[in-house]
Amino acid sequence: MRRYKRTAVAVAAAAALGATGGVAGSGEPPVTGPPPGTAAWNADRALGRALPDPTRAAPADVAAFFAGLGPADRQELVERHPLVVGNLDGVPVRLRYAANARAVQGTPYARLAQPGRQILAFDPRGRGQVAEVHGDLERARQVAVIVPGADVDAGSFDRAKDPYGTPTGMAKSLRAATDGTTAVVAWTGYTTPVGVGPDSATGGHAEAGAPRLARFTRGLAAVGAPRPSLFCHSYGSVVCGLAAKDAVAKDVVVFGSPGMRADSVRELGTTARVWAAKNPTDWISKVPNVELFGLGHGTDPAARGFGAHRVPAERAQGHTGYFAPGTDSLAAFAAIAQDTGGAVR
Q: Which of 59, 101, 58, 60 is nearest to 79 (CA)?
């Protein structure tokens, strides 16, 4: 009876957080499905044959198709279908950069075409989705992917305010901590929840984002990139928890997590190493770790019984301080990304 009361109180708190937290959710439906322009792409026979269907072709099949094309045909597809080529997992990395540099022109996100930027994915629908590479993805020996939480989109993923709370700030900090040896992708490839509200308290956005993340990792494998370490912040850890069984990854690292929709590492169904960090000042600790009637995200991954490797984070501050220079969490993240994670344990 006492346990039931505790659970009921926790669920009530989660409901209150979802309904009356300082910022209400938007109720925005997540963007799903193939890239914009897919219908025209599928109808195109300019090369004398069908193009790989974005809804059906595996990234490995896409990579094989592009490997059989000459430079002129590749360039023609970039010019005719930039949004498809730029978002299609399995397309060669540099071709995606070129396609997205074209796709962002004339949009509110034209800044993404500035010299030196490497945009691996761009989708203008909704609040916008984007993935940007920091480093040399084609030659790097290690790859990391940053998966953000709420309130991140194509307009805010690289904002200067609160830099270590953004995918770009985290990516730059991690790359610097590895002395530039790791290519880091700031991946905002799903529709994130807005604010602390119903979208954040439920799993709908994570369920829509998880297949996109899993396919993205298979796309990296298809072009010969090393298996990445996924660094999943806050609600992004819910996405990573649902994607874990299908993602091609060597590590799943969660920090400031409200839960992964699993009660243990075993339930994630992944062969990747699973790590968790939570610092004592992170407000996420006040969020009840329950999952009932669709509210909440389950067991705290940083709890001993979950089974994740614990990442030290005593010097991190707040919910977005895990990648701040000089923190023990950033040093541990760098060791994990460089595959020297044994030193963390």
A: 101
